[in-house]
Write a structure and sequence with these properties.
Elements: H1 20-28, H2 31-41, E1 48-49, H3 50-57, H4 61-73, E2 77-82, E3 85-90, H5 97-106, H6 108-118, E4 125-131, H7 133-136, E5 145-151, H8 155-161, H9 163-168, E6 173-178, H10 180-188, H11 192-199, E7 202-206, H12 209-216
Parallel strand pairs: 5-6
Antiparallel strand pairs: 1-3, 2-3, 4-5, 4-7
Helix pairs in contact: 2-4, 2-6, 3-4
């Protein structure tokens, strides 16, 4: 199986996205603030303590502490003490909470959330990417997120992994799950729908264009085992 890489880790060298939806989020917020805000506004029912948040975001302790403190001071996060721990949650009564949630459900926070949820399928997912309106940057408020997963997994398993996303995101999630052999069969059979998906823009959550090309090029069966 391919490693499921989590995009946007704070230790990565920043790269500006080519996707208009993603680029909006990157331009509006710095990397650490973007990840902290996305975690809270897309999961308003949850509370997080600081160490939990640092581990979840894979960011530096000092950077996360500063952002959380600033957001709490601004009233965007609600601070409460539980025993010896201080917990934080989104203040859903804040006057800009709904606007923030709308921004992050349409831009970069949505990708972070979905990618994180797919981590529980990492051993059985060879490739996963978003296609359609969201990948093209033409999504509107009611546009669904279309997800294609390739690997030795089932629809039920992927749905279970993405259940949190389905509850938290302000969009419907349409999932297609195919074994590598089935994807290759459809490509060889000139399946029109698959051809449209593969020729369109994509946002990869696992794998990438190189692996997709290897998988869908006739005569490259030698490499099919990596999926």
């Amino acid at each position: 199986m391919l490693k499921l890489d989590i995009p946007g880790k704070c230790t990565d060298i920043p790269n500006m996205s080519n996707n208009p939806n993603e680029l909006l989020g990157e331009c509006l917020f710095g990397k650490v603030r973007r990840k902290v805000l996305a975690t809270f506004v897309l999961n308003p029912e949850r509370t997080f303590y600081l160490l939990e948040l640092i581990r979840l975001l894979d960011c530096g302790r000092g950077a996360v502490q500063r952002e959380v403190a600033r957001l709490a001071q601004a009233g965007i996060l609600y601070r409460t003490r539980v025993g010896n721990q201080v917990h934080y949650s989104a203040d859903t009564e804040n006057l800009i909470f709904q606007e923030l949630r709308s921004i992050f459900s349409k831009t970069t926070g949505l990708i972070d959330l979905l990618t994180a949820d797919l981590k529980c399928c990492r051993d059985t997912v060879g490739m996963a990417f978003i296609y359609g309106d969201y990948a093209r940057g033409t999504a509107v408020d009611n546009s669904p997120v279309n997800l294609l997963v390739v690997g030795d997994t089932s629809m039920d398993a992927v749905k279970e992994c993405t259940a949190a996303f389905a509850r938290s995101a302000a969009r419907k999630l349409h999932i297609t799950v195919l074994p590598a052999s089935e994807l290759m069969r459809r490509v060889s059979g000139s399946d029109r729908r698959i051809q449209e998906i593969l020729s369109d823009r994509k946002i990869f959550l696992a794998g990438g264009q190189r692996e997709l090309q290897v998988l869908t090029t006739p005569g490259d069966d030698l490499f099919a085992g990596i999926f």
